[in-house]
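Running co-folding for magnesium ion.
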Amino acid sequence: LGGSISRAIQQMSNATIIDEKALNECLNEITRALLQADVQFKLVRDMQSNIKKIVNLEDLAAGHNKRKIIQQAIFNELCKMLDPGKPSFTPKKGKTSVVMFVGLQGSGKTTTCTKYAYYHQKKGWKPALVCADTFRAGAFDQLKQNATKAKIPFYGSYMESDPVKIAVEGVERFKEENCDLIIVDTSGRHKQEAALFEEMRQVSEATKPDLVIFVMDSSIGQAAFDQAQAFKQSVAVGAVIVTKMDGHAKGGGALSAVAATKSPVIFIGTGEHMDEFEIFDVKPFVSRLLGMGDWSGFMDKIHEVVPMDQQPELMQKLAEGTFTLRIMYEQFQNILKMGPIGQVFSMLPGFSSELMPKGSEKESQSKLKRYMTMMDSMTDAELDSTNPKIMNESRIMRIARGSGHQLRQVMDLLEEYKRLAKIWSKMKGGFKMSKKGDMNM
Ligand code: GDP
Ligand code: MG
């Protein structure tokens, strides 16, 4: 996708006369690419006409950077489409919330319930899981296994066949136990059918969830819009989680789900494991969708912030997708040097929401400093290794002792590193330098 879009824009900027025809050709090319990424036809068409309104032919003709103007317009439009305008209900730690998961069978509900619970548990919540799937044989076993692995309390039954009854019992029990995040996993059917929606409606009516999360498999392609809409029509979907983003899926379905449910995507699933779960961030996602990254702004910043003699080396490493602890260390140094934290890296996937949430710059800054102190106790081999497995228990213990930190804190650092390394390795290829030292999309 990135390739064909950048080709289309390239052709356009090469054209000597930018007239309506050239712009249309470019937009048609982009339309094709977005459809291939599973963005719904109607959404693409709307976007195309919006872009035509935004992109002013006169600006293009006046010799401004055409590529940049169009690129920016597409980027902004896609971001806008992923923003339903209002945030979803956000559970509060220490206050009881009931969250119900819905979605077709196989979409990843049970897996995602556990990831969601685990994610919050790590942040000090008291989550609990309720299995209200009595349709699929083995559903309870699956949830039980997941929950046990993550040490999360669970409720379910092998005997009871009424999902409403189990859901209510489970929710009641965990309310009594003062759990603050009670998660209700429900059943799905292979197809969207009346019985499924009736069941969802009943479970929802009986448990009165504060939030209903629609779970969608990212590989369903053009079916996303209708599926999301069908769920929205029977239960009050308030948020979306898109799963299996690690596979071949191109992700355009997320736009459809937002449009159909008028609810934001809050997380994405990026693997089968418990921790393969990321907060959804609109800009990096759109970058990924377009295969481009917000590299133009990033490059400007890089030139300001990264010392000249470090630049080519960093670019080379980014292009290779190599992300060592040393690179992370150097980037933390750069971030801390530049004063207002996060300006550069907030443009890059992974460096924004989790590592440096808006409004807590001070904390982020001391976190980075703490991380760097720990990394000061690492050996060269550890800092330059591209194999995370090198960090065995005895090394971690040595680093903790050497830097005066707890094991847990070193583990946090390594987890952060793994998270960033994973994102960066996915983004490689997004970094290709042209001769001018400018990023190609
Ligand atoms: P449910 O029927 O909606 O409860 O779906 P499950 O949670 O049972 O998941 C169906 C399959 O999808 C399982 O094999 C999961 O391991 C897999 N799965 C779920 N989420 C992800 C994901 O983000 N990435 C990958 N690769 N597989 C996933
Ligand atoms: Mg399930």
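Result summary
The pocket of magnesium ion (ligand 2) is lined by residues 109-110, 133, 139, 185 (CB under 6 Å).
The CA atoms of residues 100 and 332 lie 39 Å apart.
Job closed.
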